[in-house]
Amino acid sequence: MKHSNQCALLGILDDGWDGLSATARARLAHAGLVIGAGRTLQLVAAQLPASAERKDMDGALGDVPGWIAGAHAECRNVVVLATGDPLCHGIAAWLVGKLGAIEIEILPSLSTLQVAFARFQKPWHDVVIASCHGRDAGEWTLGATPEHGLYPLIRAVARNSKVAAFTGPHNTPARIARALLIAGYGDEARISVACQLLLPDEQRYADLTLEQAAAMAFPEPNVVLIERAADDRAPAFGREDDEYIQRTPEKGLITKQEVRALSLAKLRLAADAIVWDIGAGSGSVGIEASCLAPLGHVFAIEKNEADAANARANALRFRATNYTLAEGRAPEQLEHWPDPDAVFIGGSGGELAALIRLILARLKPGGRLVMNIVTLENLATATAELTTASASGGKSGGIRWDVVQLQASRSQPILDMHRMAAQNPVWIVTAAKRL
Known about the structure:
Layout: E1 7-12, H1 22-29, E2 33-36, H2 38-44, E3 53-56, H3 64-73, E4 78-83, H4 92-99, E5 104-107, H5 112-120, E6 128-131, H6 151-159, E7 162-166, H7 173-182, E8 189-195, E9 203-209, H8 210-214, E10 222-228, H9 257-267, E11 274-278, H10 284-292, E12 297-302, H11 305-317, E13 323-327, E14 342-345, H12 352-362, E15 368-373, H13 376-392, E16 399-406, E17 409-414, E18 417-422, E19 426-433
Parallel strand pairs: 1-4, 1-5, 2-3, 2-4, 6-7, 11-12, 11-14, 12-13, 14-15
Antiparallel strand pairs: 7-10, 8-9, 8-10, 15-19, 16-19, 17-18
Protein backbone atom coordinates (compact mmCIF):
# COMPACT_ATOMS: atom_id res chain seq x y z
CA MET A 1 0.00 0.00 0.00
CA LYS A 2 1.27 3.46 -0.88
CA HIS A 3 1.78 5.85 2.00
CA SER A 4 1.89 9.62 1.75
CA ASN A 5 5.10 11.56 2.13
CA GLN A 6 7.14 8.68 0.77
CA CYS A 7 10.37 8.22 -1.17
CA ALA A 8 10.34 5.54 -3.86
CA LEU A 9 13.56 4.28 -5.43
CA LEU A 10 12.42 3.09 -8.81
CA GLY A 11 14.41 0.93 -11.23
CA ILE A 12 14.05 1.68 -14.92
CA LEU A 13 15.66 0.39 -18.11
CA ASP A 14 15.99 1.97 -21.53
CA ASP A 15 12.53 0.83 -22.62
CA GLY A 16 11.33 3.57 -20.28
CA TRP A 17 7.63 3.94 -19.49
CA ASP A 18 6.69 0.79 -21.40
CA GLY A 19 8.79 -1.35 -19.11
CA LEU A 20 7.41 0.01 -15.84
CA SER A 21 4.89 -1.81 -13.68
CA ALA A 22 1.53 -0.30 -12.79
CA THR A 23 2.84 0.37 -9.27
CA ALA A 24 5.89 2.21 -10.57
CA ARG A 25 3.75 4.31 -12.91
CA ALA A 26 1.46 5.22 -10.00
CA ARG A 27 4.43 6.41 -7.93
CA LEU A 28 5.52 8.72 -10.74
CA ALA A 29 1.97 10.00 -11.24
CA HIS A 30 1.84 11.16 -7.60
CA ALA A 31 5.41 12.46 -7.36
CA GLY A 32 6.15 16.00 -6.26
CA LEU A 33 9.88 15.58 -6.95
CA VAL A 34 11.53 13.23 -9.44
CA ILE A 35 15.31 12.76 -9.21
CA GLY A 36 17.41 10.92 -11.75
CA ALA A 37 20.29 11.07 -14.17
CA GLY A 38 19.52 13.17 -17.21
CA ARG A 39 19.00 10.21 -19.53
CA THR A 40 16.64 8.41 -17.12
CA LEU A 41 14.59 11.56 -16.50
CA GLN A 42 14.19 11.90 -20.25
CA LEU A 43 12.75 8.38 -20.45
CA VAL A 44 9.65 9.39 -18.44
CA ALA A 45 9.53 13.14 -19.06
CA ALA A 46 6.39 12.99 -21.21
CA GLN A 47 4.41 11.08 -18.55
CA LEU A 48 5.31 13.16 -15.50
CA PRO A 49 2.69 15.47 -14.01
CA ALA A 50 3.24 19.13 -14.81
CA SER A 51 3.52 19.90 -11.09
CA ALA A 52 6.42 17.50 -10.52
CA GLU A 53 9.80 19.13 -9.95
CA ARG A 54 12.73 17.42 -11.67
CA LYS A 55 16.33 17.33 -10.48
CA ASP A 56 19.22 15.95 -12.51
CA MET A 57 21.65 14.11 -10.24
CA ASP A 58 24.46 13.83 -12.82
CA GLY A 59 27.54 15.08 -10.94
CA ALA A 60 25.42 15.86 -7.88
CA LEU A 61 24.87 12.49 -6.21
CA GLY A 62 25.99 13.83 -2.84
CA ASP A 63 23.13 16.37 -2.93
CA VAL A 64 20.39 13.76 -3.40
CA PRO A 65 19.75 12.99 0.32
CA GLY A 66 19.35 16.71 0.99
CA TRP A 67 16.92 17.11 -1.88
CA ILE A 68 14.85 14.21 -0.56
CA ALA A 69 14.89 15.54 3.01
CA GLY A 70 13.75 18.96 1.80
CA ALA A 71 10.85 17.50 -0.18
CA HIS A 72 9.99 15.23 2.75
CA ALA A 73 9.76 18.27 5.04
CA GLU A 74 7.34 19.83 2.55
CA CYS A 75 5.21 16.66 2.51
CA ARG A 76 5.98 15.95 -1.14
CA ASN A 77 6.32 12.44 -2.50
CA VAL A 78 9.71 11.73 -4.06
CA VAL A 79 10.74 9.28 -6.78
CA VAL A 80 14.40 8.54 -7.41
CA LEU A 81 15.13 6.86 -10.74
CA ALA A 82 17.93 4.31 -10.94
CA THR A 83 19.09 1.98 -13.68
CA GLY A 84 17.73 -1.58 -13.50
CA ASP A 85 17.87 -3.09 -10.03
CA PRO A 86 19.23 -0.42 -7.65
CA LEU A 87 20.21 -3.14 -5.16
CA CYS A 88 22.60 -4.71 -7.70
CA HIS A 89 25.67 -2.45 -7.73
CA GLY A 90 23.28 0.51 -7.68
CA ILE A 91 22.63 3.40 -5.30
CA ALA A 92 20.10 1.67 -3.03
CA ALA A 93 22.39 0.68 -0.17
CA TRP A 94 24.09 4.08 -0.13
CA LEU A 95 20.82 6.02 -0.29
CA VAL A 96 19.07 3.96 2.39
CA GLY A 97 22.03 4.55 4.70
CA LYS A 98 21.91 8.29 4.08
CA LEU A 99 18.16 8.75 4.51
CA GLY A 100 17.95 7.35 8.01
CA ALA A 101 14.41 7.59 9.33
CA ILE A 102 12.85 8.66 6.03
CA GLU A 103 10.76 5.82 4.66
CA ILE A 104 11.99 4.44 1.38
CA GLU A 105 10.32 1.97 -0.95
CA ILE A 106 12.44 0.06 -3.48
CA LEU A 107 10.78 -0.95 -6.74
CA PRO A 108 13.42 -2.75 -8.81
CA SER A 109 13.30 -3.42 -12.50
CA LEU A 110 15.20 -6.20 -14.19
CA SER A 111 18.93 -5.79 -13.94
CA THR A 112 20.60 -5.05 -17.26
CA LEU A 113 22.65 -8.17 -16.55
CA GLN A 114 19.49 -10.28 -16.44
CA VAL A 115 18.48 -8.95 -19.82
CA ALA A 116 21.98 -9.53 -21.22
CA PHE A 117 22.06 -13.16 -20.07
CA ALA A 118 18.65 -13.74 -21.58
CA ARG A 119 19.90 -12.33 -24.88
CA PHE A 120 22.96 -14.58 -24.81
CA GLN A 121 20.87 -17.54 -23.61
CA LYS A 122 23.35 -18.19 -20.82
CA PRO A 123 22.42 -19.20 -17.26
CA TRP A 124 23.75 -16.88 -14.59
CA HIS A 125 23.07 -18.58 -11.27
CA ASP A 126 26.82 -19.21 -10.86
CA VAL A 127 28.05 -15.83 -12.11
CA VAL A 128 29.92 -13.35 -9.89
CA ILE A 129 29.02 -9.70 -10.44
CA ALA A 130 31.57 -6.88 -10.41
CA SER A 131 31.54 -3.25 -11.46
CA CYS A 132 33.97 -0.72 -12.89
CA HIS A 133 31.32 1.86 -13.69
CA GLY A 134 33.00 4.59 -11.65
CA ARG A 135 35.72 7.07 -12.44
CA ASP A 136 38.34 6.61 -15.15
CA ALA A 137 40.56 3.82 -13.83
CA GLY A 138 43.32 4.16 -16.40
CA GLU A 139 44.89 1.21 -18.18
CA TRP A 140 45.79 -1.84 -16.10
CA THR A 141 49.45 -2.42 -15.30
CA LEU A 142 51.29 -5.40 -13.85
CA GLY A 143 51.57 -4.99 -10.09
CA ALA A 144 48.64 -2.57 -9.83
CA THR A 145 47.52 -2.01 -6.23
CA PRO A 146 43.98 -2.17 -4.78
CA GLU A 147 43.55 1.55 -5.44
CA HIS A 148 43.27 0.89 -9.19
CA GLY A 149 39.67 1.16 -10.42
CA LEU A 150 39.82 -2.15 -12.31
CA TYR A 151 41.28 -4.06 -9.35
CA PRO A 152 37.98 -5.53 -8.00
CA LEU A 153 37.09 -6.79 -11.47
CA ILE A 154 40.50 -8.30 -12.21
CA ARG A 155 40.52 -10.03 -8.82
CA ALA A 156 36.99 -11.33 -9.40
CA VAL A 157 38.20 -12.91 -12.64
CA ALA A 158 41.17 -14.42 -10.80
CA ARG A 159 38.84 -16.16 -8.36
CA ASN A 160 35.93 -17.09 -10.62
CA SER A 161 35.44 -18.59 -14.08
CA LYS A 162 32.35 -16.48 -14.86
CA VAL A 163 32.20 -12.77 -14.08
CA ALA A 164 29.66 -10.20 -15.25
CA ALA A 165 30.54 -6.53 -15.08
CA PHE A 166 28.91 -3.15 -15.31
CA THR A 167 31.12 -0.95 -17.48
CA GLY A 168 31.42 2.81 -17.84
CA PRO A 169 32.29 5.43 -20.46
CA HIS A 170 35.99 5.18 -19.57
CA ASN A 171 36.25 1.63 -18.34
CA THR A 172 35.03 0.07 -21.54
CA PRO A 173 34.88 -3.56 -22.67
CA ALA A 174 38.00 -2.93 -24.79
CA ARG A 175 39.93 -1.63 -21.77
CA ILE A 176 38.77 -4.63 -19.71
CA ALA A 177 39.95 -6.99 -22.46
CA ARG A 178 43.34 -5.27 -22.58
CA ALA A 179 43.63 -5.53 -18.79
CA LEU A 180 42.94 -9.26 -18.89
CA LEU A 181 45.58 -9.73 -21.58
CA ILE A 182 48.13 -7.83 -19.49
CA ALA A 183 47.17 -9.94 -16.46
CA GLY A 184 48.06 -13.10 -18.37
CA TYR A 185 44.70 -14.35 -19.62
CA GLY A 186 44.81 -15.44 -23.24
CA ASP A 187 42.97 -17.80 -25.53
CA GLU A 188 41.12 -19.59 -22.73
CA ALA A 189 39.13 -16.43 -21.86
CA ARG A 190 36.16 -15.10 -23.81
CA ILE A 191 34.21 -11.87 -23.44
CA SER A 192 30.60 -11.19 -24.49
CA VAL A 193 29.27 -7.64 -24.73
CA ALA A 194 25.63 -6.52 -24.75
CA CYS A 195 25.11 -2.94 -25.93
CA GLN A 196 22.15 -0.55 -25.75
CA LEU A 197 19.82 -3.17 -24.36
CA LEU A 198 16.09 -2.66 -25.04
CA LEU A 199 16.80 0.13 -27.53
CA PRO A 200 15.99 -0.21 -31.23
CA ASP A 201 19.70 -0.38 -32.13
CA GLU A 202 20.55 -3.02 -29.50
CA GLN A 203 23.73 -4.93 -30.41
CA ARG A 204 25.29 -8.08 -29.04
CA TYR A 205 28.76 -9.59 -29.46
CA ALA A 206 29.11 -13.11 -28.13
CA ASP A 207 32.24 -15.05 -27.20
CA LEU A 208 34.88 -12.67 -28.52
CA THR A 209 38.53 -13.40 -27.89
CA LEU A 210 40.30 -10.90 -25.68
CA GLU A 211 42.39 -9.79 -28.67
CA GLN A 212 39.24 -9.11 -30.70
CA ALA A 213 37.50 -7.20 -27.93
CA ALA A 214 40.62 -5.17 -27.07
CA ALA A 215 40.64 -3.61 -30.52
CA MET A 216 36.91 -2.83 -30.81
CA ALA A 217 34.74 0.17 -29.99
CA PHE A 218 31.39 -0.81 -28.50
CA PRO A 219 28.19 1.27 -28.43
CA GLU A 220 27.24 2.56 -24.98
CA PRO A 221 25.79 1.74 -22.53
CA ASN A 222 26.94 -1.86 -22.31
CA VAL A 223 27.63 -4.74 -19.94
CA VAL A 224 30.10 -7.59 -20.28
CA LEU A 225 30.39 -11.27 -19.42
CA ILE A 226 33.85 -12.77 -18.96
CA GLU A 227 34.19 -16.54 -19.12
CA ARG A 228 37.37 -18.55 -18.80
CA ALA A 229 38.48 -22.11 -18.31
CA ALA A 230 38.33 -22.97 -14.61
CA ASP A 231 41.65 -23.74 -12.93
CA ASP A 232 40.20 -25.23 -9.75
CA ARG A 233 43.07 -27.70 -9.50
CA ALA A 234 45.77 -25.01 -9.40
CA PRO A 235 47.53 -25.31 -6.03
CA ALA A 236 47.23 -22.49 -3.52
CA PHE A 237 50.74 -23.30 -2.36
CA GLY A 238 53.23 -26.15 -2.43
CA ARG A 239 54.49 -25.64 -5.97
CA GLU A 240 57.67 -27.44 -6.88
CA ASP A 241 60.82 -25.31 -6.85
CA ASP A 242 61.45 -25.82 -10.55
CA GLU A 243 58.05 -24.35 -11.44
CA TYR A 244 59.52 -20.94 -10.62
CA ILE A 245 61.74 -18.96 -12.94
CA GLN A 246 64.96 -18.41 -11.00
CA ARG A 247 68.54 -17.36 -11.43
CA THR A 248 70.68 -19.65 -13.58
CA PRO A 249 73.10 -21.35 -13.66
CA GLU A 250 73.10 -20.87 -9.89
CA LYS A 251 69.85 -22.03 -8.36
CA GLY A 252 69.47 -21.64 -4.65
CA LEU A 253 68.10 -18.14 -4.29
CA ILE A 254 64.60 -19.58 -4.07
CA THR A 255 63.12 -20.50 -0.70
CA LYS A 256 62.92 -24.27 -0.90
CA GLN A 257 59.52 -25.93 -0.88
CA GLU A 258 59.89 -27.46 2.58
CA VAL A 259 60.93 -24.14 4.13
CA ARG A 260 58.33 -22.25 2.10
CA ALA A 261 55.52 -24.48 3.36
CA LEU A 262 56.43 -24.07 7.04
CA SER A 263 57.06 -20.32 6.65
CA LEU A 264 53.62 -19.81 5.08
CA ALA A 265 52.03 -21.88 7.83
CA LYS A 266 53.76 -19.70 10.44
CA LEU A 267 52.38 -16.55 8.76
CA ARG A 268 48.81 -17.80 9.45
CA LEU A 269 47.33 -15.76 6.61
CA ALA A 270 43.70 -14.69 6.62
CA ALA A 271 41.94 -14.50 3.26
CA ASP A 272 42.11 -10.69 3.29
CA ALA A 273 45.62 -10.31 4.72
CA ILE A 274 47.97 -7.49 3.76
CA VAL A 275 51.38 -9.16 3.41
CA TRP A 276 54.90 -7.75 3.09
CA ASP A 277 57.59 -9.88 1.42
CA ILE A 278 61.04 -8.39 2.06
CA GLY A 279 63.89 -9.78 0.01
CA ALA A 280 61.49 -11.39 -2.45
CA GLY A 281 64.13 -13.23 -4.50
CA SER A 282 62.27 -15.15 -7.20
CA GLY A 283 58.96 -14.33 -5.54
CA SER A 284 57.99 -17.83 -4.45
CA VAL A 285 56.86 -17.01 -0.90
CA GLY A 286 55.03 -13.82 -1.81
CA ILE A 287 53.28 -15.34 -4.81
CA GLU A 288 52.06 -18.32 -2.83
CA ALA A 289 50.99 -15.93 -0.08
CA SER A 290 48.90 -14.08 -2.68
CA CYS A 291 47.07 -17.34 -3.39
CA LEU A 292 46.43 -17.98 0.31
CA ALA A 293 45.14 -14.41 0.74
CA PRO A 294 42.95 -14.02 -2.39
CA LEU A 295 41.05 -11.08 -0.91
CA GLY A 296 44.22 -9.40 0.33
CA HIS A 297 47.37 -8.07 -1.30
CA VAL A 298 51.09 -8.79 -1.21
CA PHE A 299 53.65 -5.97 -1.33
CA ALA A 300 57.13 -7.28 -2.14
CA ILE A 301 60.56 -5.69 -2.48
CA GLU A 302 63.76 -7.03 -4.03
CA LYS A 303 67.08 -5.19 -4.47
CA ASN A 304 68.62 -7.47 -7.11
CA GLU A 305 67.56 -6.44 -10.62
CA ALA A 306 67.73 -9.94 -12.11
CA ASP A 307 65.82 -11.51 -9.23
CA ALA A 308 63.18 -8.77 -9.40
CA ALA A 309 62.69 -9.51 -13.10
CA ASN A 310 62.25 -13.19 -12.29
CA ALA A 311 59.74 -12.40 -9.55
CA ARG A 312 57.69 -10.28 -11.96
CA ALA A 313 57.80 -13.06 -14.55
CA ASN A 314 56.65 -15.58 -11.94
CA ALA A 315 53.80 -13.30 -10.84
CA LEU A 316 52.64 -13.11 -14.45
CA ARG A 317 53.04 -16.85 -14.96
CA PHE A 318 50.80 -17.60 -11.98
CA ARG A 319 48.47 -14.61 -12.59
CA ALA A 320 49.15 -13.12 -9.19
CA THR A 321 47.13 -9.95 -9.77
CA ASN A 322 47.15 -9.14 -6.04
CA TYR A 323 50.96 -8.93 -5.95
CA THR A 324 53.00 -5.72 -6.26
CA LEU A 325 56.79 -5.82 -6.51
CA ALA A 326 59.03 -2.83 -5.86
CA GLU A 327 62.67 -2.87 -6.87
CA GLY A 328 64.95 -1.45 -4.20
CA ARG A 329 66.53 -1.99 -0.80
CA ALA A 330 64.36 -2.24 2.30
CA PRO A 331 63.45 -0.32 4.37
CA GLU A 332 63.14 2.11 1.45
CA GLN A 333 59.58 2.32 0.06
CA LEU A 334 58.02 0.48 3.02
CA GLU A 335 56.68 3.76 4.36
CA HIS A 336 54.32 3.90 1.36
CA TRP A 337 52.82 0.46 2.04
CA PRO A 338 49.72 -0.13 4.19
CA ASP A 339 50.30 -1.62 7.64
CA PRO A 340 50.72 -5.39 7.33
CA ASP A 341 48.93 -8.34 8.86
CA ALA A 342 51.94 -10.53 8.11
CA VAL A 343 55.56 -9.98 7.08
CA PHE A 344 58.06 -12.41 5.62
CA ILE A 345 61.77 -11.60 5.55
CA GLY A 346 63.75 -13.77 3.17
CA GLY A 347 66.66 -11.35 2.85
CA SER A 348 67.54 -8.21 4.75
CA GLY A 349 70.48 -6.69 2.87
CA GLY A 350 72.36 -6.09 6.12
CA GLU A 351 69.45 -4.13 7.65
CA LEU A 352 67.91 -6.90 9.75
CA ALA A 353 67.88 -5.12 13.13
CA ALA A 354 66.36 -1.93 11.68
CA LEU A 355 63.81 -3.93 9.71
CA ILE A 356 62.65 -5.86 12.77
CA ARG A 357 62.12 -2.64 14.74
CA LEU A 358 60.24 -0.99 11.87
CA ILE A 359 58.06 -4.02 11.21
CA LEU A 360 57.11 -4.57 14.85
CA ALA A 361 56.04 -0.93 15.03
CA ARG A 362 53.92 -1.20 11.86
CA LEU A 363 52.55 -4.71 12.32
CA LYS A 364 48.84 -4.83 13.09
CA PRO A 365 47.72 -6.29 16.44
CA GLY A 366 47.65 -10.06 16.07
CA GLY A 367 50.05 -9.86 13.12
CA ARG A 368 53.04 -12.10 12.56
CA LEU A 369 56.62 -11.65 11.40
CA VAL A 370 58.39 -14.69 9.95
CA MET A 371 62.09 -14.67 9.08
CA ASN A 372 64.20 -17.26 7.26
CA ILE A 373 67.77 -17.12 8.60
CA VAL A 374 70.77 -19.16 7.49
CA THR A 375 73.67 -17.58 9.43
CA LEU A 376 74.49 -17.66 13.12
CA GLU A 377 75.15 -13.91 13.13
CA ASN A 378 71.72 -13.02 11.76
CA LEU A 379 70.06 -15.47 14.16
CA ALA A 380 71.80 -13.72 17.05
CA THR A 381 70.70 -10.31 15.74
CA ALA A 382 67.08 -11.40 15.30
CA THR A 383 66.71 -13.04 18.71
CA ALA A 384 68.39 -10.11 20.44
CA GLU A 385 66.03 -7.61 18.81
CA LEU A 386 62.98 -9.72 19.61
CA THR A 387 64.09 -10.17 23.21
CA THR A 388 64.49 -6.41 23.59
CA ALA A 389 61.14 -5.71 21.91
CA SER A 390 59.22 -8.22 24.00
CA ALA A 391 60.67 -6.73 27.19
CA SER A 392 60.21 -3.08 26.28
CA GLY A 393 56.48 -2.98 25.66
CA GLY A 394 55.21 0.06 23.77
CA LYS A 395 54.20 0.12 20.13
CA SER A 396 56.64 -2.59 19.05
CA GLY A 397 56.32 -4.66 22.22
CA GLY A 398 53.72 -7.14 23.36
CA ILE A 399 55.19 -9.94 21.25
CA ARG A 400 56.00 -13.58 21.71
CA TRP A 401 58.53 -15.35 19.56
CA ASP A 402 60.02 -18.75 18.80
CA VAL A 403 62.60 -20.40 16.57
CA VAL A 404 62.33 -23.60 14.55
CA GLN A 405 65.40 -25.19 12.97
CA LEU A 406 64.43 -27.00 9.79
CA GLN A 407 66.76 -29.31 7.94
CA ALA A 408 65.25 -31.45 5.18
CA SER A 409 66.81 -34.17 3.08
CA ARG A 410 65.75 -35.03 -0.44
CA SER A 411 66.19 -38.31 -2.26
CA GLN A 412 68.72 -38.42 -5.07
CA PRO A 413 69.48 -41.28 -7.47
CA ILE A 414 72.74 -43.12 -7.04
CA LEU A 415 73.40 -45.89 -9.56
CA ASP A 416 70.15 -47.88 -9.60
CA MET A 417 69.22 -46.82 -6.07
CA HIS A 418 68.53 -43.61 -4.11
CA ARG A 419 70.24 -41.84 -1.25
CA MET A 420 69.22 -38.91 0.93
CA ALA A 421 71.00 -35.58 0.32
CA ALA A 422 70.76 -33.01 3.12
CA GLN A 423 69.83 -29.40 2.41
CA ASN A 424 71.34 -26.57 4.39
CA PRO A 425 69.63 -25.94 7.75
CA VAL A 426 67.34 -22.89 8.02
CA TRP A 427 66.12 -21.18 11.17
CA ILE A 428 62.53 -20.02 10.92
CA VAL A 429 62.02 -17.24 13.44
CA THR A 430 58.44 -16.22 14.18
CA ALA A 431 57.24 -13.22 16.17
CA ALA A 432 53.53 -12.79 16.93
CA LYS A 433 52.15 -9.45 18.05
CA ARG A 434 49.53 -9.71 20.73
CA LEU A 435 46.04 -8.34 20.16
